[in-house]
Design goal:
The radius of gyration is 14 Å and the shape is globular. The two termini are 15 Å apart. The longest helix has 23 residues, at 58-80. The protein is an alpha+beta fold. The chain has a 5-stranded mixed β-sheet with strand order 1-2-5-3-4, with helices on one face. The protein has helices at residues 2-9, 58-80, 104-119; strands spanning 26-29, 32-35, 85-96, 126-132, 141-149.
Amino acid sequence: MWTDRLKELGIELPAVAAPVAAYVPAVQAGNQVWTSGQLPFTDGKLPATGKVGAEVTEEAAYGYARQAALNAIAAVDDLVGIDNVARVLKIVGFVTSDPAFTGQPAVINGASELLQEVFGEAGAHARSAVGVAALPMDTPVEVELVVELKS
């Protein structure tokens, strides 16, 4: 079902990014899967570093949030299979922000809109978009995902 939707959209799930510290990409607890914070790795590399509103534009960061969410979907797929997802419950998006930057919600829309494209109504979710001083590896964004599994 969701695998077919990805094909319709022309989206291919990337390989799951190797953890950069002592954690696993995703864990299952009952009928939920929680991902670790996913960075916007593309082919094993960060596409940019720096603060949004300074070295990174809001528009570019939107794309990075989209990629981070795609990486989170890949972590869920690797653990339980994407077709076992009933719905997206919540995402948390972190944006490395210049002190004057206040557009975190617009940046994390990159993740939210991807989830809604892929999962349709089941992609509607609760969300937090948080500005932070720094993230691992000086990445501009990081996204966590919580999904509910089918019974």
